[in-house]
């Protein structure tokens, strides 16, 4: 299957008899189980092929294209998208980045056969602090002996293989960045001393099968090692950049799906003798969420394209996008729930999925890399950050050069092409904000540039991320439409807390009309619309 | 490619080490004399995020875009200074 048919395979989400529609998905979520019919569709579509580079027989070429192709599933169910396999990508990226030709080929074969791979970084005691990971892999003979526990690992109960982040350095020695290594452990059921731990239930992403691995003298061969001993952190920090961009991007589809649902509700629901869509407050919330979606997608898309075009600074954009895009999405979803009113709290009915999306986005924000850990990636970069020239290809849909994971850097330099591109298009307010962020960052004392930074200093990373979002929007092809640009600028000012609402609603009215036209003609609300199988009531 | 804020001519490894000591003393809020240049950076109380920040200082001062991997592979001030000096000189 070529991968273009996913929307058709998943069918109309509002058809109550559709086994992959909203009703079935909400029922599975309530039961705390993956949506079986949805997993079957993703298997038939060979979702795993999306995670395998084209040169190894898969369909992965560009990261922004991957996000685009996963939209249909994330519009409907983030738990399904993540649970079925996005974590397989997160695991595999390490092998694509640092594995031998043999390992890459072997893993590609596993994925193309539909097998899942778990990504075992997380230890409950250490959260996102990778350097403190304690699971031990001791070299013995022709391999490693593993002792320790990994928890909150997606698909740990059923994956065929796992990529495990393990301490290979002497635990008594002073900690450093070369303490850990990555191991690609295949055929988990055949590894002596390895047990699959019980499932952990969660409030969001309830259908994800999170569990753990226990290693008790588990023996794996030398061939499990991915890259050299001691390169685990380096490889993981490169892979994260890709998975952060993907997570930021697909997360916006929760807002896309919910926005259509709430708009659909508002067109059919009559209050005070008129449809909800005729109530100005509801209209402005809907139009605002529509703009929020475009802003979040513009940011996530630029971050994904930067992986290809500006790999040396892409890590900073990935972290900024992973911080801000889910936050924009979550805030907009919370606003939309207000329009649903009492229905926003119901676990049943046609719109129960909106509440589910709201629960799921929180999990997507925390999972993999929490907000603060992303902010701490950005903060030390900001003092001295320097706008430089940028290619137009960062912002459009033109074909990208191949992704070279080896070109991604563990730390981005001071050069900043996105800020450079902003300088050329910014209005006076944004230009002043850019100058202010640079000046405030430069003035940060050294103790305010890292883990000990106050919330005030950390807030600079959010202001920086909003500047990136503004650059992404103002340089996008959509910016040819002055009303769209106007709406976006107002929204960014408002959402970043920098400006207050304008008195003229012309730009927001135009955005509302665009949204209504798309809803009526079966086109999605995305920055780049696509056909969608759903209709107004 | 950058514009370092001081001339890099005639810089010695000892100069680079002294500059690193100053940075780290400032961060640790400790006298420079108390900073041991021969022990692993982690023993000086430096976390992974600070190392990112230090890399930024290196870029601003010497015009070198460096990654934390440099500090991982040369984990004492003396070793780091020798390595950075080699990069500055070339």
Oligomer: heterodimer
Report strand % of chain A.
Answer: 5-15%
Quote the average pLDDT of chain A: 93
| Rounded radius of gyration of chain B (Å) | 12 Å
Structure notes:
The complex is a heterodimer of chains A (537) and B (90). Chain A is 49% helix and 11% strand. Chain A is of the alpha+beta class and 537 residues long. Chain A has three domains: 6-112; 117-227, Butyryl-CoA Dehydrogenase, subunit A, domain 2; 236-393 and 405-520, Butyryl-CoA Dehydrogenase, subunit A, domain 3, CATH 1.20.140. The mean pLDDT of chain A is 93. Chain B has 90 residues and is mainly alpha-helical. Chain B has one domain (13-89): Non-ribosomal Peptide Synthetase Peptidyl Carrier Protein, Chain A (Orthogonal Bundle), CATH 1.10.1200. Helices cover 56% and strands 0% of the residues of chain B. The longest helix of chain B has 16 residues, at 13-28. Mean pLDDT of chain B is 89; it is low at 1-5. The A-B interface holds A 131, 173-178, 230, 233-234, 312, 376-377, 379-381, 383-384, 409-411, 413-414, 446-447, 449-451 and B 2, 23, 26-27, 29, 39-43, 47-53, 55-56, 59-60, 65-69, 71-73, 75.
Short description:
The complex is a heterodimer of chains A (537) and B (90). By secondary structure, chain A is of the alpha+beta class.
């Amino acid at each position: 299957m070529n991968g273009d048919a996913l929307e058709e395979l998943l069918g109309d989400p509002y058809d109550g008899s559709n086994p992959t529609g909203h009703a079935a998905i909400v029922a599975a979520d309530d039961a705390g189980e993956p949506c079986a019919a949805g997993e079957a569709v993703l298997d038939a579509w060979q979702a795993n092929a999306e995670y395998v580079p084209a040169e190894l027989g898969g369909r992965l070429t560009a990261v922004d294209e991957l996000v685009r192709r996963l939209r249909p599933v994330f519009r409907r169910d983030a738990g399904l998208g993540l649970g079925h396999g996005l974590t397989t990508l997160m695991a595999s990226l390490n092998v694509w980045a640092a594995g031998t030709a043999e390992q890459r080929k072997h893993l590609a074969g596993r994925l193309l056969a539909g097998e899942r791979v778990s990504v075992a970084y997380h230890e409950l005691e250490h959260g996102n602090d990778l350097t403190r990971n304690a699971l031990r892999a001791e070299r013995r003979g022709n391999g490693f002996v593993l002792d320790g526990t990994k928890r909150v690992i997606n698909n740990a109960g059923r994956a065929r293989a796992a990529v495990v982040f393990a301490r290979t350095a002497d635990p008594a020695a002073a900690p450093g960045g070369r303490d850990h290594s990555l191991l690609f452990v295949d055929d988990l059921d055949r590894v002596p001393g390895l047990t699959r731990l019980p499932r952990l239930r969660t409030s969001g992403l309830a259908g994800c099968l999170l569990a753990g691995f226990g290693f008790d003298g588990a023996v794996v061969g030398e061939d499990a090692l991915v890259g050299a001993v001691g390169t685990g952190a380096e490889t993981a920090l490169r892979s994260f950049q890709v998975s952060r961009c993907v997570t930021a991007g697909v997360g916006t589809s929760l807002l896309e799906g919910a926005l259509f649902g709430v708009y659909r509700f508002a067109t059919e629901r009559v209050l005070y003798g008129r449809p909800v869509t005729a109530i100005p407050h509801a209209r402005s919330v809907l139009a605002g969420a529509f703009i929020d979606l475009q802003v979040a997608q513009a940011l996530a898309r630029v971050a994904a394209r930067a992986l290809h075009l500006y790999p040396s600074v892409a890590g900073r954009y990935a972290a900024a996008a992973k911080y801000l895009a889910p936050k924009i999405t979550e805030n907009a979803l919370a606003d939309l729930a207000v329009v649903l009113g009492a229905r926003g709290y119901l676990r049943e009915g046609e719109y129960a999925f909106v509440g589910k999306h709201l629960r799921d986005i929180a999990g997507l924000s925390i999972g993999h890399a929490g907000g603060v850990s992303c902010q701490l990636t950005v903060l030390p970069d900001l003092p001295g950050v320097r706008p430089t020239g940028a290619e137009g290809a960062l912002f459009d849909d033109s074909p990208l050069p191949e992704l070279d994971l080896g070109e991604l850097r563990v730390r981005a330099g001071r050069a900043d092409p996105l800020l450079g591109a902003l300088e050329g298009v910014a209005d006076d307010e944004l230009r002043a904000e850019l100058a202010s962020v640079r000046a405030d960052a430069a003035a940060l004392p050294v103790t305010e540039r890292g883990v000990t930074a106050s919330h005030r200093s950390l807030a600079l990373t959010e202001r920086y991320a909003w500047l990136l979002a503004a650059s992404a929007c103002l340089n996008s092809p959509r910016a040819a439409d002055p009303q769209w640009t106007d709406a976006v600028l107002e929204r960014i000012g408002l959402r970043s807390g920098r400006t207050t609402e304008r008195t003229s609603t012309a730009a927001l009215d135009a955005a509302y009309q665009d949204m209504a036209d798309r809803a009526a003609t079966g086109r999605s609300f995305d920055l780049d619309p696509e056909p969608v199988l759903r209709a107004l009531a | 490619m950058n514009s370092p804020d001081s001339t890099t001519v005639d810089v010695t490894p000892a100069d680079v080490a002294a500059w690193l000591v100053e940075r780290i003393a400032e961060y640790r809020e400790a006298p420079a004399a108390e900073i041991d240049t021969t022990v692993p950076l982690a023993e000086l109380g430096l976390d992974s995020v600070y190392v990112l920040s230090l890399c930024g200082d290196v870029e601003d001062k010497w015009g070198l875009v460096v990654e934390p991997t440099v500090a991982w592979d040369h984990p004492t001030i003396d070793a780091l200074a020798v390595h950075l000096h080699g990069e500055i000189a070339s």
